[in-house]
Every structure is written in C-alpha cells, then in structure tokens.
Fold this sequence. Notes:
The structure is a single chain. This protein is α/β, with parallel strands linked by helices. It folds into two domains: 1-24 and 102-208, Rossmann fold; 30-96, no CATH class. It has helices at residues 14-20, 28-38, 40-49, 61-70, 73-96, 129-138, 144-152, 157-163, 174-192, 195-204; strands spanning 2-7, 25-27, 102-106, 121-126, 166-169. A five-stranded parallel sheet has the order 2-3-1-4-5, sandwiched between helices. Helix 2 packs across helix 5 and helix 3 (40-49) packs antiparallel against helix 5 (73-96). The longest helix is centred in the middle third of the chain and has 24 residues, at 73-96. It is globular, with a radius of gyration of 18 Å.
Amino acid sequence: MIRVGIIGGIGSGKTSISKLFKFPVFNADEEVKFIYKNNKSCFRILRSKLPKFIKSYPVKKKDLISAINDNEKNLKKISSVVHPIVRKRLRNFIKKNKNYRMIILDIPLLIENKINNKKDFLVFVDTNRNNILRRLKQRPNFNKKIFNKLRENQIELSEKKKLADYIIDNNYPVHIMKKKIKKLKEKILNERNNTWYWNYRSISKGWT
C-alpha cells in the first residue's frame, strides 16, 4: 500500500485534490469535527482544561475560537487533547484500508506533527494567494485572526515544497485538475515498482 501525503498551505485546496485521487482519504479536519461531535471523553477533558469556554456537549467551534482568541496558549491545550485521538483514528483507517493500492493523507500538520514516514509520497499543492483567499472567504465562520494563529503552526511553505516528491499547480479548472491528478496517480503507482527510482529516492532523501 502506498501512502500519499497531501501538503500545502491553508486554503490551497488540499482536500479537493485528495478526493481526485479516487482512493480512500483520511481527512484530519473531518475527523476532528467528528470527534467534537461524538467523543464525550474528549469533551470532558477539554472542559476540565478550558472550563471557562467549554461548557456543553457537543463541543462547539465558536467556543474553541473564543478560547483561542482569549489566549493563544489554549490552542496547544486543545491540540494536546485532540491530536492523540486523531492519531488513533488514523491507525484504524490504515488498518481498515490496508488492501488498497493507495491511501491519501489529508492532514494539515502531517509534517509538523511527524505523522508521515520516510516512504510516503508527498504532494505539495501550489496555489496562488488570490485563489487561497477566495477559498477561505467561502468557508463558514472564516476568522482571519484564527487563520493567522493556525498558520503559525505550519512550517514555512518553501520548506514544505522542498520536502515534496511532486508539486501540483492547483490554479486550473476542475476538469484540468482531474487529468493532472490522474497522470500523477499513474506515475506514483508505476514508480512504486521501479527499483531504480527507489534507489534514487533513498539517496536523494538521505536514507543510505
């Protein structure tokens, strides 16, 4: 099974690109939403850490935003509770989909939280600033202040781009992006069985 990590900045279109691969996708943002809505244990721990803000179940996004706005250290408190649960759900996802040729990891902090492994194929989604802002403004409850704090948790985009095996230009209409991803998917699947490529990759990434 090939693990493909989709990386890039906030609002770059990682989720849309992930879906175009037509393989099982682990979407960390959707997993977090599910946890807030369905995990009572998570709620109780968050309430104990942030009693001023987290008062009722299920956990509400507006309460989390209020906590982060009040003190940016609260973001770390929230992450310390939620991230271990997400990791556990990721392990279950991988186990469940082990018979697929490929799985897609749509995890915003894939690299920052060291969730990726050295054999993952990393695809960087490159999008111009105007398209990013347009996407973000279309999101419900878009909050620029929260956006800036979340962005601080992501390593510099230039560094992420250096780590990528492939860079996909996501500034085209959907019908063109479908073709681009289809070609990329075939390329990754072919390279999996290419001994020369794996030897080259090992040297270029310093595995040897």
